[in-house]
UniProtKB/TrEMBL annotation, chains A, B:
<dbReference type="Pfam" id="PF00356">
    <property type="entry name" value="LacI"/>
</dbReference>
<keyword id="KW-0238">DNA-binding</keyword>
<dbReference type="InterPro" id="IPR000843">
    <property type="entry name" value="HTH_LacI"/>
</dbReference>
<dbReference type="InterPro" id="IPR028082">
    <property type="entry name" value="Peripla_BP_I"/>
</dbReference>
<dbReference type="GO" id="GO:0000976">
    <property type="term" value="F:transcription cis-regulatory region binding"/>
</dbReference>
<dbReference type="InterPro" id="IPR046335">
    <property type="entry name" value="LacI/GalR-like_sensor"/>
</dbReference>
<dbReference type="GO" id="GO:0003700">
    <property type="term" value="F:DNA-binding transcription factor activity"/>
</dbReference>
<keyword id="KW-0805">Transcription regulation</keyword>
<dbReference type="Pfam" id="PF13377">
    <property type="entry name" value="Peripla_BP_3"/>
</dbReference>
<feature type="domain" description="HTH lacI-type">
    <location>
        <begin position="3"/>
        <end position="58"/>
    </location>
</feature>
<protein>
    <submittedName>
        <fullName>LacI family DNA-binding transcriptional regulator</fullName>
    </submittedName>
</protein>
<dbReference type="InterPro" id="IPR010982">
    <property type="entry name" value="Lambda_DNA-bd_dom_sf"/>
</dbReference>
<keyword id="KW-0804">Transcription</keyword>
Amino acid sequence: MAVTLKDIAAEAGVSLMTVSNVVNGKQARVSAATRDRIMRIVEDRGYVPSASARSLAAKSSRLVGLLVPAEDEASLTISPHTVEVIGMLERELRRLDYHLMLRGIAHRAEITEALRSWHLDGAVLLGFLDAEIDRLNVRTVGDVALVAMDCYSENPLALGVRSDDFGGAALATEHLAALGHRRIAFAGPGFSATGVVRRRFEGYRHVLGEHGIAYDPELVSAVEITRGDGVAYGRRLARERPDVTAVVTTADLLAIGTVEGLRAEGRSVPGDVSVIGYDDADIAAYVTPKLTTVAQDLPGKAAEAVRLMMGRLAGDARPAAATTLPVRLVERETAAPPRS
Amino acid sequence: MAVTLKDIAAEAGVSLMTVSNVVNGKQARVSAATRDRIMRIVEDRGYVPSASARSLAAKSSRLVGLLVPAEDEASLTISPHTVEVIGMLERELRRLDYHLMLRGIAHRAEITEALRSWHLDGAVLLGFLDAEIDRLNVRTVGDVALVAMDCYSENPLALGVRSDDFGGAALATEHLAALGHRRIAFAGPGFSATGVVRRRFEGYRHVLGEHGIAYDPELVSAVEITRGDGVAYGRRLARERPDVTAVVTTADLLAIGTVEGLRAEGRSVPGDVSVIGYDDADIAAYVTPKLTTVAQDLPGKAAEAVRLMMGRLAGDARPAAATTLPVRLVERETAAPPRS
DNA sequence: CTGAAAGCGCTTACAG
DNA sequence: CTGAAAGCGCTTACAG
């Protein structure tokens, strides 16, 4: 059997409580001498505290969930963007001596279940629709410290962390407009449902206005952010709207597909059409031509998520305002002045 | 407060035990009538069992760890290959009502700590060196069901799941040899330490022999599997060994970098030099030219890892033999007959 | 500075 | 088919 507090206490000839205090670093409550003696025994016996016992007895589990939408039978689709966030969250939490539980959510009820059954201290919700976050209430969530990433829900139960989506798309559109483009298309998924895409769309439209370019709804397309959908979109665009000379997209993968689709129809990038991606995923630099794209501050986003969560766990009662992280344009090879 | 078994029992007018039996589906032990009544109350009150209480009282936690090597202060580096595995493991485990804990391991001792503190039922070790798996002993591991992925350690404490590494490299080399190549280089990381790379190297060398091609140690290079290292390698190869007409690599990213480096030095791919990747990651199909590569059965690997683990948890005492999954060549655009 | 008691929410035998 | 008792390994007040 694994060694327990009791074993250590017996060997040291002290009470359970004293060992507990030593193990938890409550220095003030134990003399240096007994502390050293106990520590030595702990080391020798290779004592590891039981997290389940601890989380049952204490109010804290030191467990944080990373909840990601999932299909029932499908494996988690983890975008390049999500991967970065996972890796960074894990590091931040590990540093603070927390553990990370990764969970796909196929049904609404599973959120509550995950939070409750493991007594999670906090959770990061990644990639949920605003509406789903809106629906969270105290009954389902309890007092878990929730951080919703890339979400524009006003629900005070979830602290928000996101990038400057309006600004990112504005940056991309501005770059194209400054290059001389006038017919600029916009492609992204789920307009109505996801606030992120909506803000980016608004950034695009805003800059159009600033440059006196009339907004043309026909130039805006709902396209899923996969390479395949991008290819289809690129082909369609080339055939149906040959007048378009530039495209703002909401994801690198989508942009990469768009470039391919365009080329498949005989249009060159950036000769005939400029394309700008979003995220600056690793692949953006691998493809040919290398993708001009909008980079998010992913490490900042992960760090901020953890910072907000720890703040709430430490007792910051007032719901902090949503944090918005800066964004920047990475100029590479897919944006150039229009021909003529 | 959250509702507990006791609350449900009180409301139903039965004992705690009966509710526990109902919740855990021990049908035989409760009459249909009380079962239905209890279930209704459970639903109404939104009862969620406490996993920590359960794992403390029972021998099982229904928690599985995914342990990945990490640097102390660095965020987890999750390769495209690892991402797939994570997503698939999560799905398989979720289906079986297990939860996944993701943990970076910076020091040896953290493995024990992770396993013990959360009473993990099992763990998948992903990306560790064979030597690290070798060192695992019963004292550090207890009776946790361990699966080591992509590892050739003989340690019976960890069930092995891997692809046919020898066969994969053999397939790639065979393809090149059949195309007419005679000077075929091999590039991969950490030869001595990682069994995976060693087997692939052996596959390469074996096929060379079969084709009567003399083995030239100078054609074998230790290169980290990043795109940057690949670029450097490609340039070096172009300058120092212009006679080489083909390269077998152990990773897509490395292959992609190699192609770039080769081209930067004025060599064309596959015109002057053929390059074959490994893994068939998504990016392999995105780059230009599209990468010819060796595909692993990733879903199979994840499913097999879970299957083995569940077998052990169900009591398969005898250590199952390591499982080896098949591999296949995906022909795309980076391999062609040599010039001349 | 140290300890005895109660309790966190379950499950595991064991009775009836 | 149902239940009372003991215990899993800790922490939290509260005493001394």
